[in-house]
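cache lookup: miss for this entity combination. No prior model stored, computing from scratch. Input as submitted by user K.M.:
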Amino acid sequence: MKILIVEDEVDLLVTISNYLIRENYVCELADNFQKADEKLAIYEYDIILLDITLPGGSGLDLLKTIKKQQINSGVIILSAKNSLDDKINGLDLGADDYITKPFQLSELNSRIKAVLRRRHFDGTHILTCMELSIDTAGKSVTIGSNEIILTPKEYDILLFLVINKNRVLTKEAIADHLWADNIDMADNFDFIYTHLNNIRKKIKLAGGNDYIKTIYGMGYKFSER
Amino acid sequence: MKFLNKVNRSFLILLTSVLLVSSVAGYFILRYIILDETKESLVEKENLLRKQIVETGEIPNLYPVMEVKELNRLTQRSPEFRMIMIQDDDEDELDPYLEYSNQIKIGDSFYSIKLRQSTFENEDLVIIIAFSLFIILAVAFGILFFISKQTNKTSWVDFEQNLKAIEEFNFSEAGKIELLESGIEEFDRLNRVILTLTEKLKADYLSLKEFTENASHEIQTPLSATLLNLDEVLQQNLNEEAFKKTHAAINAMKRLSMLNQSLILLTKIENKQFKAEKALSFNDILNRKLQEFATLFESKKLNVGLTLEEDLVLKMNDQLADLLLNNLLSNAINHNLEGGSILLVIRKNELKICNDGATNSLTDETIFNRFVKGNSKSYGLGLAIVKNICDTHNLEIHYTKNKLHCFTITKKL
């Protein structure tokens, strides 16, 4: 999977690419409009992460070029502006998703995976991890022949954990993934604990092992080891 | 009161008082002048009479206008005028007369002279003249009033239109304000002042908008970098202490970012940068929100009561409508008690959200101010945003506390 990251903040660019390389993506970097434009003219990418505010031009203009030249690329807009105009314009111009800074890498990964799934780059909509098999089209989870019946929220949490396996996800990161940014949940994260307990029980009942680790009561990790 | 009505009203009051004062004054002045004339003519007659007595020796008598008597001696020093009433035999009524009495000496004889003139006709004359004066003035004033009203009306038409253009002017829209030239110096001067003022304000507004957007961008980017790096730190095999500290740092950073976003949002709402494109059914949105929030209600074991009597339709940006309900519902959950209840009511032009909660929390309308928080965990901006949305959408919001804490949003009519 080849990803082009267009972001003018070098710190951010490096952190994102380091992470994505570890997740086995091939990354190309561009920190201004010109570089991005050149790369887009030469190479093809599966996913393009696109910042709107760039030195030398607007990311929205790049988006227009992408939609003309690389119809197979999935585009995720990274924006710090949180401006609705950008969001609407971006999505109108054909971006697949929109993520507002600051975001967490686990959330970005989840969005990339979702875009890839939607565009069927994986060739399949079945995600397997250890004995778990997740059908992202039918939103169902099975272990062998046993189907695990999950509520929609439980399914979302499990998918989020599996996509970000071996990574610590804080309660807040999970809550952010489940709800829109602007819901002020104060400190009411107990329900996440409840959901995770239910997921664990259901997996055990279906004959699976418990791969979900609790990290000091503040985070969770789907651990293959 | 409209300016024209005000002007017309004071004009009318002035005209009426001038009319009344001048007619009354006219009446008295005329009366005085005529009386004076009458006195003069009586004195004139006395001279004629005196001449006649000297020349002919006759003593003329013509009741009631002339009475002459011979006297033995003078009893009166100087001539006198007085008003008297005399019986009119023909009409059997009392008529007013002005009487001139004098005692004179001609040769060796003394005479008492009483000359009278009826003032009855004078009185009539005065009234007739005063009345005519009143009529003429009234007609003249009426015409004047009507003409000035018409000219005022036409010269204010342009002004009214300009006022409307100014009212409808929105800084966030491109384009200049269009004002009509009326050819009236004061109005045109006002137009020029408004044009330069709006140009300046618009420039300020744009630079402020740019600043907030840039500030937000500049703050969010380092925040993003910090958060991403801290998240990476979290992935190392940290001991509990280090994990806790990193986690706390992440949460503090997130809080900062949320605050930044909320403040920018408040500014945007105040600047009316959210366009309301269509009318939204709040019943639909509320139903959708309830599904979204279901898990959150469950986790606190809240009982949710929903009453939809009539659809509430408001013209509002859909993102803002979402935000409004998100904030109110989050508020109702966060301040609720474990196992408490939430009541949602939509009535005609009214949305009400009530929740159980601690009795010692905030109890007045300061609850809508920025950074006023009931518990220290919230940001203290949620309700400020709600209030802002209401203020900019012709809605009123009130907070009341009886057994339940209630927020009531009503449409201003």
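stored under new cache key. The mean pLDDT of chain B is 84.
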